[in-house]
Prior knowledge:
Blueprint: E1 2-6, H1 9-26, E2 31-34, H2 38-49, E3 59-62, E4 64-66, H3 77-84, E5 96-97, H4 106-119, E6 125-128, E7 150-153, H5 156-166, E8 175-178, H6 181-186, E9 189-194, H7 200-208, E10 226-231, H8 236-239
Parallel strand pairs: 1-10, 2-3, 2-6, 3-5, 6-9, 9-10
Antiparallel strand pairs: 4-8, 7-8
Bound molecules: fructose -6-phosphate.
Fructose -6-phosphate (F6R) is lined by residues 35-39, 63-64, 129-131, 135-137.
Amino acid sequence: MKIISATNYFDICEKTSNLVAKQLRQKPNSVLGLATGSTFLGVYEKLIQNKEIDFSQTRTINLDEYVGLDGEDKNSYRYFMERNLFSHINILPSNTFIPSGMAKDIKSECENYDKLIKNLGGIDLQLLGLGLNGHIGFNEPGDCFVANTHSVALQQSTRQANARFFGDIDKVPASAITVGIKTILQAKKVVLCVSGLQKAKILIQVLFGPILPNVQGSILQLHQNLIIIADKEALSLWEEGL
Ligand code: F6R
């Protein structure tokens, strides 16, 4: 694992967008694994600003979507991606993939999403954020590491963390579809972006603690090509040598 210490959130965004730009220069038709959430707002802004990046052949696979929200809902992850990235770059809409939270049969939707990822040849570069409870995607703390795309009941802490977007925790959907741990681990390169003091403790557990389903992100220790881009605040406990 390679840890890149960024001076602040803006530096994380700069460094991450540079990695994505490099990936697309080397392989224009890369499959990018994308995440939503506050951490990536600035990353996507940087990608939009860099007019030299050509997304015309790029394929994207998003990690997750809320069950029960359609793509027009401003809290859906489809909406987030359209608004914060896709509508500003030269990507083909038909090359952007996000699970449908409105699928009648969620189980088949998950199975089809796994098939799709396989047919695209797997993920070349996976961007990940980190939940306060150590989740990656919406793989929540649980009894086992779930391999494939699946639906998951969101933990109260996750719903609380996302309540700011919905105005009220009761409006946050109770479940989501997420890509599973196996798919994340099969990505050729994984970039984990972490910002802020409130994530310092969980980041240490993820990177140096025992690999446990209770801290889903800890499985990333097994990935051969993992890059962590974190700011000084998120790395503060590491830098203190704890
Ligand atoms: C969202 C996702 C989540 C977030 C995580 C961090 O697609 O996969 O795992 O990356 O919850 O969210 P922020 O960046 O809002 O702290």
